[in-house]
Every structure is written in C-alpha cells, then in structure tokens.
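step=predict obj=KIB1-4 beta-propeller domain-containing protein n=144
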Amino acid sequence: MLSDEEEEEENKGRRNFFSLSVDRHVNLLLPEAQGRRCWGSSHGWLITLGSDMDISLLNALARAQIDQLPQLPRFESFDRDNIKKIILSSKLSSTVDKNCKLMVLYSQSKILAVCSPGEKSWTTLESTIGQLSDVIYFEGMLYV
C-alpha cells in the first residue's frame, strides 16, 4: 500500500476522462497539463491554462501540443478562475490552423476574447447589452 505522499506523487500529472462511447473512465498521464486548468474540447483537444494566463492546446490522444497562442488578456480583478468557458470553432490539426478560433468567455463579465493559433494578440469584444452567459460556434457562426 502506498503512503499518501507516494500516491500523490504517482498521480501527479494524471487526468481522468469519461468516454461516452464506451461508458467508462479513462485515466491518462498528461504531465503537460500538470498545474494547469483544463477545458475539454472536441476531437481529443484540451485547452490548458497556467496560473500566468499562458494558454495552450493539448491533444491528449495524439500527444501533440500547440503553444503558438498569446498570453490571455487580464482584466481588472480577473484571473484564470474567472474564465467560464473556452471553446474551439472547428476541428484542429496538429499544425497551426489559422481558420480555427479559440473563444474565451469570462465569468460575470461582458467580455469575450477571440484568437487563432499563431496570432500575436487576442481580439476582445465587449457586450453593450449586459452580461454574457454562453458562447457556441455553429456552422461558421459565433453565437453569444
């Protein structure tokens, strides 16, 4: 039997996923995601965010990583715990795909940030009608 310290060390960098297609949990070793907040996306991609607001894409199945993203913008009193949702607009290959957009919705905010891999900065959009509650991308259109 492992001590608590040994068990914690052994589980470092591990993430648990649930597969709907086979109805079971899968535990993967992902040291690239250690200490980072993760959001699931489509086609095996995870969006990871460090405490320094450094964002990257990680394909948990193919073990590919895309780091060509600018640091996520910080707003007054916002940190990574104030991010409500991050999504990808489309399937992403393991190379930089300028047609794919990442969209970040901040919690309790009117702000949406948008960027493509390889771009130098985020474009921020601010709602004039109130707080944003959700964001989806469907058939080439962004709905907020």
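step=describe
The longest helix spans residues 4-10.
step=end
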